[in-house]
Write the structure tokens for this entry.
Amino acid sequence: FSASKKEIAWLKIDIEGFEVQALEGARRLFQERRVRVAIVESLHMWKDGGIEAFRRLSFLFQFGYWVRCL
């Protein structure tokens, strides 16, 4: 990124098993509210009905984001 902190309109993540880690790695982007929408495509994250994924993604709430399972 350049010195000016640009907004990211859409962040799409589909990396077969490491989606949560990618979101956690992008924590600063979310903390700075630079990502408007993040789409995470994953089937295996929802094996337990999404309970573990929801728990691990709940850090996004503290930055004002919503988590939706579709």
